[in-house]
Amino acid sequence: MSKLVDFPVTARWPAAHPERIQLYSLNTPNGVKASIMLEETGLPYEPHLVDIINNESHTAEFLALNPNGKIPAIIDPDGPGGEPLALFESGAILLYLADKTGQFIPADAARRWETIQWVFFQMASIGPMFGQVGFFNKFAGKSYEDKRPLQRYVDESKRLLGVLDARLEGRDWIMGDDYTIADIATLGWVNNLVTFYEARELVAFDSFGNVSAWLERGLARPAVQRGLTIPGRS
């Protein structure tokens, strides 16, 4: 029977509460998916700051947990069969925690899969495209003389916002009346686009009224407010 201390990551980030879910993350748009979900479910957890700016996600200890070197990752000491479970990829973490708690995912099979498809929409489209807007609008890419890459990602981000806006027509949440992991997966990315990436005007965000109202509803949730700061940069 394995124990939490058997995982190399715990040597670098020791667990003060080994009975709790261990979260290794930073409050990036991907990282906050896990922290928001943990706050929403009320599961006891212990956050550990992984400083990706200083390449802590590429240390041997972290790579033993996630060979892809990305945050977030978790270890649940009470995983399936009572054995510890290590898990990476934010979408997989959301699905695991939803199934573990029976929260924020429909019990009905058809609606469950409809929810999962919108999680994949965020993972495959919104995250990568919004991230490229951030790179070319705020970070190293802003100095590129050729502005065509920025425009390409701006145009695609506008298209994706249009898809989301159409989905939210007449709905409070992506799945209608039910707030789900589809919303949790997407909120941090949309918020980051218009705040940290400074792209609100660039993507004409205020023209997407349904998305704007949905974002306000999401940001008003106390668990979202907390999760957006966990684990905060020191």
TrEMBL record:
Every GST N-terminal domain range: 18-105
Pfam name, any one: GST_N_2
Domain GST C-terminal stretches: 108-234
Keywords of this entry: Transferase
Keyword Metal-binding belongs to the record: no
Domain of life: Bacteria
Alphabetized GO MF terms: transferase activity
Name assigned to this protein: Glutathione S-transferase domain-containing protein
Species in which this protein is naturally found: Rhodanobacter spathiphylli B39
Source taxonomy: Bacteria, Pseudomonadati, Pseudomonadota, Gammaproteobacteria, Lysobacterales
